[in-house]
Amino acid sequence: MSGTEHPHEPSARDLGADRPHPARVYDYLLGGKDNYGPDREAAEQGMRANPHSLIPPRENRAFLRRAVHYLAAEAGIRQFLDIGTGLPTSPNVHEVAQAVAPDARVVYVDNDPIVLAHARALLTSSPEGRTRYVDADLRNAGAILDSPELRATLDLDQPVALLLVAILHFVGDDDDPAGIVARLLDALPSGSYLALSHLTGDYDPEAWAGVAAVYRRSGVTMRVRSKPRIEEFFDGLELVEPGVQCLPRWRPEPVAVGSADAVTDAQVSVYGGVARKP
Question: Which of 43, 55, 59, 137 is the most exposed, having the fewest neighbouring CB atoms within 10 Å of its CB?
Fold first, then answer.
């Protein structure tokens, strides 16, 4: 079995259009069109609480692209597990990885039905590689690891890059996010990697407390965390240089002096890093 695999697409399934979902709010903030009124309202309220709310999604996408390219081109990784995929936004993980290694395999995981409905757009693997989609929640690591789609696509005896980009700040402390990360990593062999990014309130606590309150009123958990708390997700791993940094500082691409793309750490307010499992 190779190439693209198409999951069953829901037809009459409830797409949850009556309440915001992080994947669709994120899509709206990136300028996408696959979102509903409640998603747009939550995003607009968030932007009123923090006028820089458009910047973190853009920087997360840029970090994801740089991290995947590093993992494929420099670390030699050929298998990727992307949890909290969100709606298709090119370049997707498989596009970046397969541009380096056409035989790269990617499993995407998300729990938003509208993402599942768009899976055909996501799952456009190269002929040599493979992509699959798992409909599951990050908080249920067992369901992800035991899914037939994952088992048919990834060889868990070989290194895998676990991608947790802009997802863990939607997991509350009561759900033990560090335990979730540890369980996922425990299932992966030596030589695997973790690429992770996470919102922080370190630079502007008041603004991000306001954004978190907007999400909470909408029924969505948001927990911004400090740099030391975020670094704990990498415990026991070997951090790739330059360690855990505000996203634009992690292996940045050249930015022209005075460029409109230049942003401050406070505007970004997201830490990220990549680490190897010894």
Answer: 137
pLDDT of 17 over the 70 cut: no
Give the relative orientation of helices 205-217 and 37-49 as an angle to the nearest 10 degrees.
160
pLDDT tens track for 157-173: 999 999 999 999 999 99
Q: Which residues contact 84 (CB under 8 A, 6 or more apart)?
A: 22, 23, 109, 110, 138, 164, 165, 166, 167, 170
**What integer is the mean pLDDT of 91-116?**
92
Nearest CA to 97 out of 67, 57, 123 is that of: 67
Q: Which two tokens stand for residue 5?
A: 């695999």
pLDDT band at 207 (very low <50, low <70, confident <90, very high): confident
- Domains of the chain plus CATH, in order, are 3-276 (3.40.50.150)
Helix H segments across 119-176? 119-122, 141-145, 148-153
